[in-house]
Amino acid sequence: DQASTGASHWTFALNSRYFKSFRHFVGTDEQKQRVEEGTEVINHVFSTEMALTRQFNDRWSFGLFVPVASNARSSLYEHDNKHRYSTHSFGVGDVRFAAYYWMINPAKMSKFNTQIGLGLKLPTGDYRYQDYFHITDSTKRLGPVDQSIQLGDGGTGITLEANAFYNFSKQASIFFNGFYL
What we know:
Shape: elongated
Oligomer: single chain
Number of strands: 12
Radius of gyration: 21 Å
C-alpha cells in the first residue's frame, strides 16, 4: 500500500453518478397521482467528479475536486401545460479543495483508522444557468432552469469530512464517510 510507505505521490480518481427522480412528496405523503396523470417532473442527473489528490506523507494529503454535470428536467407546468418539454444544463459545478489527516499513523495501524478533512467549496458552477422554455408550440422564452439542475449554488462554503474503516479480514471490511457543508 503506497499510502503507508511515507512516500509522496499523486492520485487521480474519476467518479460517475446517475440518478432519475420523478416521485413527488408533500411532507411524507407521496403524490402517486402525479405519475398516473403524467404530470410528474422528471430529472435526469449525470455527474462526473474528477479528483486529484496529493499524498504528502503517511498522514497528510490534499485534494482538488472538479465536478462536471449534464442534467435534464422535463415537465408540463414549466412549459405550455400541454406537452412535455425538457430544459438542460451542462458544465463544471462547484469546485472543492480539502486537506486530510489520518488520526492514527497508517504505517502502525492497518486494521482501522479515521481520517478528518477540512475544505473549501468555491462558487465556480453557474447558478444562473438558462435554457429555453416552450410557451407555445412555436414560441420559446429563455429563463433560468430549476434549482434542481443548476450547476452550482452561488455560495462559498467550508466542508468538514470524516472517513473511517475497519478491516474484519482481508475479504471483509466496513467503511464510513461523513460530509458536511
